Amino acid sequence: MEWIRGRTLGRGSSAAVSVATDLRSGQVMAVKTVEFSRLDFLKREQRILSQLNCSRVIGYKGFDVTLENGNLMCNLLMEFAPGGSILDTMEKAGGRLDEATAQFYTREILSGLHYVHSNGVVHCDIKCCNILVGEDGIKIADFGCARRVEDVFGGNLAGTPIFMAPEVARGEKQGFAADVWSVGCAVIQMVTGRAPWANLSDPLAAIYRIGSGDDLPEIPRNMSEQGKDFLRRCLIRDPEERWSVNELLKHPFVQEQKSNPKQNSRTPTSILEQGIWDTVNDPETVESPIRPKIHRTPLQRIQQLNEVSTNGPNWECDEDWITVRSIGLEENDIVSVMETPCSSQSVEMASNNEVGDQDYINVSASRSSDYCSRKREYGSYPLAKIIQK
């Protein structure tokens, strides 16, 4: 696939999400980019996302490795959600959502999770900024922390502290029930504008209190009785007693909301969470985009993406575009790249950065690259020669 990268929409500690356009079809996409040394993280997300196909889950478009400014970059191409995240919608609505809108979003989140869980996947990081708003409803996104249920063991923390279930905070198995707890926390945030445990500013303090105490997140007083009961079913400390997604889909709180209430969505401004909001074990977490105006031709789409509006978002990294071409690494080749040893001498062909003695090409992350680099066109790069050197 030949595609062009547009403006950066959000950044994490080691990842960036940009607008991208397929030069053949003109399709607008989102692309999540990390340095090649982070391939293992992106590869895990790619493996899970590529096996899911549901209207309530962000769509997988492909995987690509490119050479940009002398650095090998890994790119996960995904569906582009036009409405930003639920968090963006909340900000546009004045900081929180009315209960009817929260009901609708909650039902769609549960519908998506039902599909994800039925395919043996635990998301591990459900929260409002990881739920995107598409033209046909919400999309569960950011599977950077996701695991197959058979691969989930105790001892490893994954997720965002204030959205973690008690068993996760204690280092126990992170199963489907943990996602249900996170849904309850997300509903609280939707209707109040504040996440649970908002008085805790330290991640370790939050993990300790959630895991070892008997406290529960405060249920909003302004919610209906059905809403309060729904949250009580989500926020049961014992995961064995907590309701399943399938049971929650039959709860009156979500069953009575049938249509999509009108909500204005806000263009995000690359608001990246810090501290208590950071996702544990997910350095690639980034915020979500809002789709630009759609035009008929690819050229018009690209021109629209490059326009600057005084009323638009304050994007970071607003330099010129680069044309990106695949260097020939297909999805099935990812495993072989990870498992193929290479010497530091062979890596120097692609980068002057120091490398370790890992089992994959390790481009040091010590030098920060600019994902929106100056306009430059790259041809195909002989990655096979690097691997076989």
UniProtKB/TrEMBL annotation:
Domain of life: Eukaryota
Pfam family, one: Pkinase
SMART domains, A to Z: S_TKc
Swiss-Prot/TrEMBL GO biological process terms: signal transduction
Residues annotated for ATP binding in this entry: K32
PROSITE patterns, sorted: PROTEIN_KINASE_ATP, PROTEIN_KINASE_DOM, PROTEIN_KINASE_ST
Keywords: ATP-binding, Kinase, Nucleotide-binding, Serine/threonine-protein kinase, Transferase
Similarity annotation: Belongs to the protein kinase superfamily.
Listed name of the protein: Protein kinase domain-containing protein
Annotated source species: Cucumis melo
Lineage: Eukaryota, Viridiplantae, Streptophyta, Embryophyta, Tracheophyta
